Structures are given as structure tokens and as C-alpha cells.
UniProtKB/TrEMBL annotation:
Annotated organism of origin: Salmonirosea aquatica
Domain of life: Bacteria
Protein name per UniProt: Uncharacterized protein
Amino acid sequence: MQLSLVELFPELNKGLFLDIFAKMTLDPRTRKPTLTTLNGQRVPGDFKIRCQHKYIGQFPEGTIYKLDVRLVNYKKGKPYFSAVQNRRIQRALEFFDHNMRIQRGFSPAVSVSTRMLQRRVELG
């Protein structure tokens, strides 16, 4: 995982985070694609990320994206992230196999290599 520039330069605002991984899901209320952060990063998990829907809606639900975000803290509401550059939102290369399985309609829970190992064990 790449460290954020915020840690290297303390004079920067602690509201900018680089190379954050997010998963695309459909909002159950509006049925529009939304991004939420993945757990295990230097940012809280399951935080919503505001971005333009047209840049993330072209791939199926479950696709993992990598983007830079800015923390938005409103006094009246819950904090959330906002994409820094909407046009530069790209699918994450680190999750290439996962994203390809999602696109082809396979279950993301079991990888191809895991299936091959199971077959080898069964065959002896």
C-alpha cells in the first residue's frame, strides 16, 4: 500500500488521501452507483465517496476502484469523502482478477486458483 503524502509532509491538510480503494455498490434507495471505502486502509471503512455516477456506472456492482479523495466535514452532517478528480477514477489494477471475475459474472468469493487447488486435491 502506498503511503499518503500527508504523512510525509505534515504541513499538508489532513483531509487529502491518495490511492484509496473503493467498491462500487448500488444505493438501495436511489438505485444509483455509489462508492464506499474498503476496510483495512488508513481511512475508515464503509465511508461514502461522492463522485459523478457516469464515471463509475459503466462496470458492474462489486468493481474495485482506486482514487484520491478529500475529506468533507460538514457541521450539520456525517463526514464523507469527495473524489478529487472524477475523470481520473480508474479500476484498480491491484484487484484486476477480482474485477475481471465480476465483469464475467463469476462469484468473487472463490478465486480461479482456489478452484484449481480444490480439483487437484479431489483428483489426488
